[in-house]
Sequence to fold (946 residues):
Amino acid sequence: MGHIRGTVLQTPDVKDSGAASVAAPDTPSTLKRIGYSLKSPYFWANWTVLLALVVAVIVFWALSPDTFLSSYNISTILTAAAVPAILVIGQAFVVMTAGIDLSNAAIVTLSAVTFGAMFAAGQPLILCMALAIVAGVTAGVVNGVVIAQFKINDFIVTLGMLSLAQGVALVISNATPVQVISEPLATFALGKVGVFPYIMILAVVLLIIAQLVLTQTRFGTHVLATGGNTETARAMGVKTKAMKIAVYAISGGAAGIASIVLISRIGAAEPSMNTSLLLNSVAAVVLGGVSLFGGRGNIVGPFVGAILLTMIINGLIVAGVPQYYQFIAIGLIVMISAVLVRSAK
Amino acid sequence: MTSQVESQGFAVETNNIFKSYGSVRALKGVSITAKAGEVTSIIGDNGAGKSTLIKIIAGVEKADEGTVEIFGEPVSFHSPEAAREAGIETVYQTLGLIEDLTIWQNLFLKRELMIGIPPFRILNKRVMRNEAVRMLSELDVHIPSVKARVRGLSGGQRQAVAISRAAGWSSQVVIMDEPTAALGVRETAKVEELIERLKARGLAVIVISHNFDQVLRLSEQIWVMRQGNVITGMRASDTSGDELVSLITGATQARA
Amino acid sequence: MVRRSRAAGIMAAFAAGTLLLGACSSDSEETTTDEANASGTAGLRIAAVIKDEANPFFGTIAEGMRDAASEYGVDLTVEYAPTTNDEVGQADKLNTLAGQGFDCFVVIPISSNNLNQGLGQVSAAGVPIVNIDSPVDTEGLAAAGGSITAFVGTDNYQAGVKGGEKMKELVGEGASIGLIAGLAGNVTSNARIDGFQEGAAGLTFVGPVTADWETAKALDAAKAMIAANPDIAGIFAANDTMAQGIAQAVAESGKDIKVMGVDGIEPILVDIESGKVTGSVSQYPWVMGQLGVEACIVAAQGGAVTEFVESPAVVVTADNVADAISNFPQPPAAFDSPFAALIQK
Fold:
């Protein structure tokens, strides 16, 4: 499929020429194909995280054979992974345009207190949720416009937004948490289908939508083109500024949705920021094989990366490894994966 | 000097183009023409204004003054996309392809074929792949698979893809900036073959090149630029490599 | 090919490393189990989820818990919150442990609601929960289907009152006192600050300003406070880690400003002895940990425990700091556990 079937005019002496006109080789044997894909950087970028996940599952299962793979523990991991997994979907889009969103955890806080303020004012749940998402998207659009329109470094802009969103969150909330005791939200946070918590099902639905948008739409191709080479994409007519604004808006929207899940889990809208969410989202994107230079990657990898990071913490707790080692393990795994992806290039 | 071709109408004609970047005057009243079914070369030393001129024709830059006419119609492109829609395609030396996208994605970038009912339209990948195969084979370009990413291609293969893209969209004018600068002898020959095919299909091809042998081999018309001006234009059959060298060298001396 | 084997090597190293980490930990696990003697408490497994390790107060609580666990020969697992305000991270740790068949849980929640869903599951499984130090919001917990078996903690309001009275005695009527609180809206912090204001009624108050329980933030807040209120005679902090920061700010200002904290952590005792800090309303963190484990044992054995056990607090100043230091981590004065007699050995 996809091979040129036109007449072959050239002798296929590929080795010393590398000419434009290279004959289509015979259909390679399956073995050769596997060999070929093992040498491809794309293979490693895409599969490192899955491989790491499998290794981690085996290691933790060996360490705690009774508990680690119990249905209770699997569903605990999936519950814990939902918030980071939703956030990483947004971060992945941003990183694919060679950007980075350092403000996503602060936007979660901003969205959460927006939700809390509406909830405290007695607004219906659906409105609280909608406004939490609107707040997130708005903050994302501000990020994107400043970055794309004024050509300011994404690192600086989103670092500014980190502080800005946290500050606005403190103003809105008057630095006071709002208890959110809601039957539907509690059901949402606790409910399960088999071992799959509702909140992880939500995350998977978002993942599927995001992956389809990335691979099956014009928008997705243009996001990758913008990240791959902004100047070329612009010369080809891709609206690169609009793409950049859009990915930060997506990241903000993902933060808004994550804030709702977070509130449902802790039963309160808190004005303080959780920095580990930010670090995890960046680490998961790298684990998932998305190039920090943009242009390459998918959403599934980072999503699995987020689950992997959560699972490692869980597995170490279950195995009784002290806290210090948990931090060390996460740090090592992120670095090793980065090296793996890099060395495959 | 251009009287003999004027009567046949030009695919591209620029009239008295001026362009400045801050205090740097890149173009000081440039007028050139290019005919359909011919290769028109623009030569000159670095900084002569060749790239600026083709960027204006391709809609990447806007002229401060002067007009561009395509088949006699005055045009004013606000974007490269507008130029592409008007049938003007450009093969850039550096801004060529997006390495991390596949060949077919590059060929169809910004011209993706869709399927389905709005807003639920998705990429029609199968048709685009088949079309990509057809676009490449029409110019006898042989590449293992259109699903391969550009990053893995050789310089010659990349240029072949870029040229196929430029030629594949019922375009009328193809502009090429140093199409063989980074290529080996054999690959250069292949690209020249492609340029000949474009010409044979009746396209107007504008080439920037530093390779005088190539310019003489390929072109019908040659324009020599120096310091933002067109020094002279001539038919390739009326000149020689020595003359071209002396024109360029003259430019170098004038600068010193 | 070279690349491939390098990648594989790294992967193997990772696997080996993880196995090694795990191996160490499972060894230590076995030794604790071996210590268990054949008493009525043998085989009991208790899990504790407490706050962050950055604050030595919680380290001392953990020490009290471990000492009690080894005294009665029960198996104890302690997990800390990943960071000071990672509410959902702490909840995930509780959820992870909740599925492992522990006989009782000891918890110190970061906020009054963040552990509710996990605790609801613990209660649903009929496992008792002993809440120490910072109270869980019992209404919120009831909504999640859970209940607390016993609470062991200092009456934070009364601790504040004690601090206020001492401060008033030291600075005299009419003096101006700065107040530095912990996380915005935190129940414990509010109770201590409110109690302090009652105990020190008649003095003028500046603030409260929040410093998130952090030393560095308290340092900056105190500096600003001293600059803005040159006549300030004393500063009260809602905990000792913040009092340490304030003491630094006072030392930099060169003024004679009384500094008082709450908790009685080991470093603050040293500071009181050296005169850097005036005093601390010392809780009995070691006792709190001990009581938590003892209450858990009683509850796990099916015994009846008092629902609210007040752990005492005493103001430590230069007068009694020598005793406090020599007894540490045990309290400055003897304290009889109300649970010890209830445990079936």
